[in-house]
Amino acid sequence: MPPVNHAIGTPFIELQQIESTNNYATALVHEGMAHHGISIFAHHQTKGKGQRNKSWLAAPGENITTSIIIEPATLTISKAFGLSKAIAIACHQFIQSYAGDEAKIKWPNDVYWRDRKAGGILIENIISGTQWKFAIAGIGININQIYFPELAHAVSLKQITGKSYDIINLVKELYMHIESSLELLKKDSAAVDEAYHNQLYKLNETVKLKKNNRVFETTIIGVSPMGQLQTKQSVDEAFDVGEVEWVI
Fold it and tell me: Could you tell me the sign of the dihedral formed by the alpha carbons of 7, 12, 13, 15, in that order?
């Protein structure tokens, strides 16, 4: 896990506008200028990246859009979902501290409030041979934006609480949650698994999923250590990340 000599957010690179903070972080890796803890924040992303090759849309200056360079160190790539869970837990704790207990982690690593998306995570791994060199954790959290014309199920902290926030202060708060969550992963991965499971969106509830052209109802019963969504209907099924879509 990460060396302790570089805390998350050290250094903190603040940019007014960039295509993608993940791309910026990846370029630092390829240029040999990366180390654990470097964090890039942009007031405006013109080509933000989301899951499943989707765009992350965020109004300029109103939200958290950041990427963090993480050195997995002793973790192997087979444990990649453990890191994803740790980042999701940190984002959940951050949002929960403002939005309350209705915040949940939606598999694989979105944060929802009620049935609306408050934040999302995209982790891109850089592997050399069999060595997991770096993970780039891209995080988007809706803060002060109140209109989401292209996103029917989005929600922001301002919509939830009625308050406006200082974005820079909040992103540095988020980094502290991530630091703590990574330390927990280093010391007790079972505790990370438990925390993730305890906050899982729609756990033990019936949901509607879509796989290819098949839309079906099933009950969420958990997530495997490898990151598969585990469900139960007439038979038990497990799905890889990207294999199914939620139908809300």
Answer: positive
